[in-house]
Specification:
The chain has 311 residues and is of the alpha/beta class. Helices cover 47% and strands 14% of the residues. Strands 1-2-3-4-5-6-7-8 form an 8-stranded parallel beta barrel, surrounded by 6 helices. The termini are far apart. The structure holds NADP nicotinamide-adenine-dinucleotide phosphate (NAP).
Length: 311
């Protein structure tokens, strides 16, 4: 099986969905612009798209299928909103494949650590049928990752990757050893929300009101020093502030998944992958981020969605 070496991934959570776009992101981006972004991604050599059935109420999946998936690497997910039921993963994957107009996905993630063994066993079945080329897990803690790896090892299948929340201001998975464990075991670590849904973009650029921004603005007040450092580093390297946040992850050996829906955002992501920071710059970014005390909703919110074990 050919391994997938991911440098950066395009996230599709913010595609589609007028209500979601306006309420959460402050704006809705027309499909024609997203299509231009996809064409730009092809030009820039960014091939990997991260999807899930719930993103934009399924609109992202359909858009990808309509765009054409011949030259694209598809990263899709099964989201266990309920406890395991026989063939639940199969049914969901079949809908994905119909949306993608494909007979396989490149990477398939178990989105939450609910009923891990049962869900993974069904994913293994689909892998053995050739419908899934690589298996990953998302929003899992270290113990859950170890358990998943054991299950896959027993089936003779490598664990491709972990997809968890991570950014310059959310480094829990590094501090508790999960990222080192990935490196030791040659498992790819993909970071979702590396721009913290807009918190790690340029504070000097005014954005439209949204519910998310109401929360963010409170946190942003704590981040003056961090923005100052990010702006200084961006000037030194001739890049933008969001590119500093993206390049930070790449310099840590982590794959950034970035919510791009405009051509310039795709271009910036492709450029950020090539930026090299000195160890002094990395230390300064981390120290200032830690001192800011800024908090985000992402990590805890997703763990909250994990169902309790059945008795
Ligand atoms: N596995 C999981 O549980 C999970 C959970 C959440 C997300 N994800 C994945 O991670 C992806 C990324 O997360 P996200 O989209 O929520 O957040 P994100 O990537 O942290 O942030 C997206 C925001 O950043 C802005 N942005 C993107 N590129 C920019 C650039 N170059 N310059 C300035 N602003 C830029 C976007 O602006 P605009 O508003 O102008 O577009 C958008 O508001 C998702 O799409 C999804 O694929 C996975």
């Amino acid at each position: 099986m050919e391994n997938i070496i991911a440098k950066a991934v395009i996230g599709t959570n913010s595609w589609g969905g007028k209500m979601y776009g306006k309420a959460v992101r402050g704006s809705y981006v027309e499909d024609s612009i997203i299509k231009e972004a996809m064409a730009e991604a092809e030009k820039q050599g960014l091939k990997i798209y991260d999807l899930a059935r719930d993103y934009g109420l399924g609109k992202a999946q359909k858009m990808i299928g309509e765009f054409g998936t011949e030259n694209i690497i598809l990263s899709a997910k099964y989201t266990p909103f309920t406890h395991y039921k026989k063939n639940c993963v199969r049914r969901s994957l079949e809908k994905d494949l119909s949306d993608f107009k494909r007979d396989y996905v490149d990477i398939y993630w178990l989105h939450l650590p609910t009923d891990i063994e049962q869900h993974l066993n069904e994913i293994i079945e689909l892998y053995n049928e050739g419908k899934i080329k690589h298996i990953g897990i998302s929003n899992f803690d270290l113990e859950e990752c170890k358990l998943s790896k054991r299950i896959l090892d027993n089936a003779g299948i490598p664990l491709y990757g972990i997809q968890n929340h991570y950014s310059l201001i959310s480094r829990e998975w590094e501090k508790n050893g999960l990222i080192d464990w990935c490196k030791e075991n040659n498992i790819s670590f993909w970071a979702w929300a590396v721009l913290e849904e807009g918190m790690l973009t340029d504070p000097r650029v005014k954005t439209k009101f949204s519910l998310m921004k109401l929360y963010m603005n409170r946190q942003k007040k704590k981040m003056h020093d961090l923005y100052r450092v990010m702006i200084a580093i961006s000037k030194r390297h001739g890049i933008t502030v969001p590119q500093v946040a993206e390049a930070y992850c790449v310099n840590k050996g982590i794959v950034p998944i970035c919510g791009c829906r405009k051509p310039n955002q795709v271009r910036e992501l492709a450029e950020a992958v090539e930026v090299k920071f000195s160890s002094k710059e990395m230390q300064l970014l981390e120290k200032t981020a830690d001192l800011s005390g800024a908090k985000v909703l992402g990590h805890d919110l997703f763990r909250f969605a994990v169902l309790k074990k059945r008795r």
